[in-house]
Structures are given as structure tokens and as C-alpha cells.
Amino acid sequence: MSKENGNKSEDTQWPLWEVFTQPRDGKPHEHAGSLHAPDAEKALENARDVYTRRKEAVNIWVVPSDQIVASKGEDEGPFFDPADDKPYRHPQFYSVPRVSKRRS
Amino acid sequence: MSDQGEQKSFQERIDNGETIEPKDDMPDRYRKQLIRMMSQHAHSEVVGMLPEGNWITRAPSLRRKMILLSKVQDEAGHGLYLYSATETLGASRQEVIDQLLEGKAKYSSIFNYPTLSWADVAVIGWLVDGAAIINQTMLARSSYGPYSRAMVRICKEESFHKKQGYEMVAKMADGTPEQQEMIQDAVDRWWWPTLMMFGPHDEDSPNSAELIKWGVKSKTNDELRQSFVDRHIAEAHEVGLEIPDDELEYNEETGHWEFGEIDWDEFWNVVKGNGPMNKERIKARREAHENGKWVREAAEEYARKQKLSKEKAS
Amino acid sequence: MSTATKSKELTKQEALFEYLVRLADDRLILGHRLSEWCGHGPILEEDIALANIALDYIGHAANLYEYAVEVEGEGRHRDDLVYFRNDVEYKNLKITELPRGDFGFTIARQFLFSSYSYYLYQLLSDVKDEQFRGMVEKHFKEVKYHLRHSREWVLRLGDGTEESHKRIQDAFNDIWTYIGELFHQDEVDEFLQDKNLAANTASFKSDWKDLVSDTLEEATLDVPDFDQFMVEGSRQGLHTEHLGHLLAEMQHLRRSYPDGNWQ
Q1: Is C133 a member of any domain?
Q2: Smallest CA–CA separation between C105 and chain B, in Å?
Q3: Is the Cβ of C218 closer than 8 Å to some Cβ of chain A?
Q4: Number of folded domains that form chain C
Q5: Which of A90, A100, B158, B190 is paired with B244 by a 20 to 30 Å CA distance?
Q6: Domains of chain A by start residue, with CATH
Q7: What is the mean pLDDT of residues A65-74?
Q8: Which residues contact C104 (CB under 8 A, 6 or more apart)?
Q9: Does C261 reside within a domain?
Q10: Do B292 and C39 touch (CB under 8 A)?
Q11: pTM to 2 decimals?
Q12: Contact A19, A35 (CB under 8 A)
């Protein structure tokens, strides 16, 4: 398929893509799964056929899997633990006077 | 860290109920066992399209035709989810499909039995999908994240598969004498092969203990088989169908149905490739793969040309 | 042969019934051919895509038959039309009944039929019959996708490898003789067009030809001659021999046990 394989004509199942679907208008896209496709247009079509057979989405993103950069399990501590001691980032950290919803 | 230490901390994670993700450290054997199990599962979905697909063009009403076509299509989808999940362990789809086509990989033996009448479609939905759901509900809690997530999605979609099967079974059992005869005949042929789907007895299943230790499975083959039997005997009685087993007996004390012994010679024979349809199933998959080769190549060549001309233009 | 096309004076009811059945037959038969791919596609993703399109067609046919028997008003079920008519009573276009062939043939037919359906549904979106129009609007969304799917494949096969180029070119050459009657009009069409209940397919023929020619050219394919000999007669029940075998397979179980409930 690509240069890495040299001239050898190898059978292929096409490159791998990751599919993200937006379940409803206004909601964020979520990872739905992956699939194989030769290019972006066919990846979109395949995603529509594979991951929205039951109306699961209003919008689809497809990304070549090798373009995804992920943090590793061993990064978990240094990446995410520091957020543990920043309670001031959460609304529960603050106490404010209760304000009545009545207009008067 | 020594291999022993690594294994231990991995086992601790499993015992804590943690989910293992693709980039996490995992013992080689865990990876290998999962690749084997998940790719077999994927193959089973794809080969499983064939016996039911055999009846799509002959379905006796438009309603049933649409239900069957969408069910078989779902199975392709499930195969796809499972191949994708297997790929996260470093086994490409191409690689595992090659193993299937070369006859080196296994898949569920149930699909090596032929669908001889339309009633078989009903009974496959009821019994075979019924057995699959019991197995898959357990696997949805498996320790490997991608496998468990694929299973959650599959279980959601498959609940209709069993339901449509049982609906059809009920209608035929309540239908004309010919329909009743047809459905009973299908139950007679599929009951025992379905019980075999859960695999050998626990004492003959060396993989089972290891898979349970690793949190991939949480129940043994015999436990799963028992819950299948209990559920489906009740359903059979509900619609007045006979189960072809003289030794069936309800045990008041345990609350379970006791049943006869599986013909293990037949089981091993089919596993070894001598079932009624083994050769045809692999031949059909091989033909689809070979006939599709030029299509896959064309799309890839087109993509290459497009990329090239885009690069030139910029 | 149906009474509708034979009788001298058509009623609106007869004509509409006949028209709906023709549309339904096209979709059922093509859906049947596509459904044969299920489990045998060139790659899993495409297996799923073809089954989706087959399901769309069979679903469209089911809706159309259901409305047809309602219009007829004799208490028949849609399945009566599907399972208990013979070859000559089927009115589908011959292009839909040809065996599925290789993937190239399937795509060539899908592209020609989807692009035709695209223009057809555009016109049918204006019919003066609420129930019919409602159905058309729903189906049209799927028809647009069928066109996109097949057009993209024509480009890939035409401008792919040497082998794929040859296969899809051969397919277009072989199938070409069946496209003429897509635009044939008879008294049923004309009768209903006067009442805004049918589409004049001849009116979009040149737009359709442009779309087909542009796509084939973009796919580096030769456009066969639009003026070559074209077969006719499908709407009068004249078929190829392939239809009989297709129906034998489709109908045999239901006809063997006509008294059973098969829903």
C-alpha cells in the first residue's frame, strides 16, 4: 500500500481510522470505534454505515488512527494527579450567598 | 522490574477490578490469550453471517426479510468491532483474517451446521443468539477495556436478535401443523450443538481457569451452560416445544434443570474441521476475500493517486 | 398482464396502483440482488454498506406496496404482491433483475439507477398526493446517499488500477442497453402526470446524461453511446430469463405454505 511496504504487492485491509460521533446537536463528539477505509471520503461513508445504523449520530468525525497521540498508562500520575489538589477549579469550592429566584 | 514483579502488579490491578487499556503493561500471555479469544470471536461473527444469510433471499415475508437482513448485517458490524478491538493488541485485521482463511484460526463450531429450513433461522435467533448473549453479557465486564466496550455495544444491538428469534419460534409453534413440525425439527437439530457452544466441561478446559484469573471471564463454561439451559427450557415450555433430551429433570433443591451428556465425539469432530459445513464456510469466506482483492487494491491506488496530485498542486 | 395497461380507459385508482407497483418492483428486485452480497462483500465495511442499501430499497418497496394495496382497496396484503405474482406480472425495469455480477457490475448498476432515482425523486417530491409525497420525501434522503456511495466508487474503480478500470468499463458497456427504458413513458405515466401524480422521466434525461457522462469522464472511463440499441418492454412485463429464477427463489417457501402466518 504505502512506501513502507516497498514494491511488494501485499493484500491489504486499508488503513485504520478512528470514528467520533456526535449523538445529538450540541453534544460533544465521542469515540465510537474504528474501521478501515482507503481515504477520508470512504472513511466518512463507512462510519455512517457502520456506526450510525440506529440513528446514533448527527455528525461524524474520522481521523487516521496513526494521527492520534495518546498519553500512556505510566503518565497517569504526573499528568492527572496534580489536578487533585486544585479544589479552587471546582464550583463546590466556593460558598456564596443564596439568591432568591423571585424577581421582587 | 523483574518479570515476576510485573506479573504480580498486573494481577493486583486485575484483582482490584481495574480495566486494562491497550498501552498498559500486560503479560505476554495475557495479550496472546486475548488475541486468540477476540479474533476467534470476530471470526465467529463473520462466519456466522453465512448460515442465516443463506435464507435472506427466501424469507417468506417482507417483514421477515428486512429483520433477517438487518440482523445478518449487524453480525458484520460486530465482527468489525471485534477485529478493531483485537487490533489494539497489535494484531492487524489482515493478519488474523489470513489465519482464518488458511484454516489456522478457530471460530464457533455452531456455524458449521447447515440451515436446512426457514425454521432454522428462528431457532438460531432464539438458541444461538440466546447462548451468545449469556456469554457476551459476561464478557462486557471483561478486564480488557476495548473488548469490554465492544461487548457493551454488541449486547445492546443483539438484544433484538434473540427477541426476533423467539418471536418467530412462538409464532411457528402456534402456527399450522407444517409450521409446528418445521420448528420442532429445527429445535431437535440445533439444541445439542447450541449446548456445545459453551465449550468443554470445566475440567477439560485448560484456558478457562487462566481467563478467569485474569478477569477476562467471570464464569466457567459449565456455569454458563447451566444458566442457558434453565432459561431456554422455560421458554420452550412456554410455547409448547419439546427439548430433545430424555434426561431432563428439574432439581427442586438446586433450582436448576439437570440434563444429559453432550456427545463429545461429535463436538471434537466438528472442532477438528469435520462438521457438515466446515469446508463450505471457509471456502465462502476465501472467495469473498479473493474476489474483493481487486476492489481493495483499486481504492488504495486511487487514494495514492489523489494524494500525489494534491501534493503536486500545492 | 395487468388489467391497468390493457384497459381502454384508465381510472385514477388503477393507474396509481400500477405506478406504485412499478416503483416498488424496481426497488424490491434491486434490493434482492444487493442482498445477495450479504456475507460476500469485498471487505467488511462494504458488506455493511451494501446491506444498508439493500435494506433501504426493500423498505421503500414495502412502503410502496403497502400504499398500492391501500389504493386498490381490495383488502390485499403487500406480501400478496410480492409472493403471488408471476414473472409477467412483475413490472420492474430489466436493469434491476440482472444477476449481481462482480463488484464492478454492481457499482455500475447502482450508479446508473441511483442517479436516475435521484432525479425521479426530485420530481416526485411535488406529487399532489400527501401520503405518496410523504413517502417520497423520506426515501429521497436515502437515495441521495446511494448516489454518493456509488458515484464515489465509480471514481475509485475507474481511476484505480488497470484491472478495476477494465472491469468497471466492461460493466458499463454491458449494462448500457438497459438504460433506454428508464425514460420510456406510457399511458399510465401520462395519465398520472396530467394529475400531478407521476414524474415525467423524459424531462430529466439530459440532466441525467450530463451527470453520468461527467462522472464517467472524471473516472477516466469512456462513455458508451447513448444512442445505441436499447431494450424495451419491462413495464409491460417483458423480462430477461433471470427474473424467473429470482422469483422462484424468493417465492418458493411462501408459496409452499400459503396458509401459514409468516409475519
Answers
A1: yes
A2: 12
A3: no
A4: 1
A5: B158
A6: 16-73 (3.10.20.520)
A7: 83
A8: C157, C164, C167, C168, C170, C171
A9: no
A10: no
A11: 0.92
A12: yes
